[in-house]
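thought: fold this chain, then report.
action: predict
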Amino acid sequence: MVKVNIESLYSKIFYSALVAIGVTDVKGNYVIVNPTWCELLGYSMDESVHLNIKDVTPREDWDDSIINFDYLIAEEARSIRKQRRYQRKDGTTFWADLHASSIYDDNDFAIGLLGVFVNIDKQVMAEQIQRELYLSLEQLNQELSIANTGLNKLARQDALTGLYNRRVLDEIMQKESSRSQRTKRGFGVAIADLDNFKHINDTYGHECGDKVLKEVSKLFLKGIRITDSVGRWGGEEFLFIFTETTCQGAMIVIDRIRESVEEANILCSESSLNITITIGLSFRGGGEGEEDMLSEADLALYEGKQTGKNKVVCYQEICSDKK
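observation:
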């Protein structure tokens, strides 16, 4: 049996190891390093014994490095493992996976530190790139989500007033019609038109006209129930859809809205404008055909315009009067 020289074996392992090995005293001065350590850090073995751990640590990492070193030397822990940066002789840095442990004498007092590390710079850089890509994708997804929300909002809202646009009103009409036929409960449709709006535009300008449209839109939203809908139908016309209601109930709500507009004072071009609206209403009691409701509401609106404006006219009442 061949007798092995343990010290010689340890020496060969130390100098042949593919991992970097460095030993310091209790002050952090290097006592011995192996060739891999020299290769990674760019120092010769002769140079290494004149170095302190600070010399191979980036300045901004000194505090953290000293804390860990003192932690081990003070025997608060036997070993630690962490990722840390090393600084080469030429000033460049790299990331390493470090295993550091205290070295003890025969009386179990710490006399130095053993550091074993491997270069993981490529791994850390890859992880950093991956994190940055992930964050970029997250930000892009957020921006796309915001953009989609904005697009959906634009697709559903009138750009000037913020009310529903005509496309959305058509969808609501179809849904409400189906619901009414299914539940046999009534609903109403009303078209409101601003009186003498052309005169406002011609006298005070289109900017003032736009302000009027926006202000009355606020009054419309404030006046309807949460279950009702209102949108800009076109120009100075607005469409109201009243769900789950009676003809009398719809008339009460819409006339209250008309009064709120009449009572409002809209300041424009240093003038206080008194605006009125005329409204035509059509009602179905549920289960009846709704195809002609918009035409009926429009006819009722026309009747209101011809008979003095600033009023609510119900198509069904016109028909009853004529009979």
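thought: worth noting. The chain has eleven helices and twelve strands.
final: tokens above.
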